[in-house]
Design goal:
This protein has one domain: Roll (2,3-Dihydroxybiphenyl 1,2-Dioxygenase, domain 1). It is built from three helices and eight strands. The N and C termini lie close together (about 10 Å).
């Protein structure tokens, strides 16, 4: 029995419109629900990101890491850089985790990792989930 059916990560932001521009327009996340002071975006499948206007609860940069997985790390980072997004760490290979990664900052200073797995075990995890789903 699957215990969990969906997942939402919520973050607190200063400005909903600025965050909407970043997450929906620049990153391309599907905007699925407006709750007034919170907006929810589909990242993939049943995984979501919730963005809430809570300026008093902004955490220090580095206290949260949101990772987006794509086979096109270099292209996405180039596109975001051209759009004026702050590139915190340029694209690099991380041999410890067998990944290619880059880090960008959202408008509130939250760090977002853009990542590609090179570890063949990750593909096995994905195939296994899809065959069961």
């Amino acid at each position: 029995m699957q215990r969990w059916h969906q997942q939402i990560t919520f973050i607190n932001v200063l400005d909903l419109e600025r965050s909407h521009q970043f997450y929906h327009e620049l990153l391309g996340l599907d905007f699925v629900l407006d709750q007034g002071d919170c907006r929810i975006y589909r990242v993939t499948g049943d995984a979501y990101l919730g963005v809430c206007k809570r300026p008093q609860n902004i955490q220090a940069p580095g206290s949260f890491l949101f990772t987006l997985i794509t086979p096109n790390v270099e292209e996405e980072v180039e596109r975001l850089d051209a759009a004026g997004v702050t590139i915190d760490v340029p694209t690099q290979h991380n041999s410890t985790y067998q990944i290619t990664q880059a880090f960008i900052l959202d408008p509130d200073g939250y760090r977002i990792e853009i990542q590609r797995f090179h570890d063949p075990n990750w593909d096995q995890v994905i195939r296994h989930k899809r065959s069961k789903g």
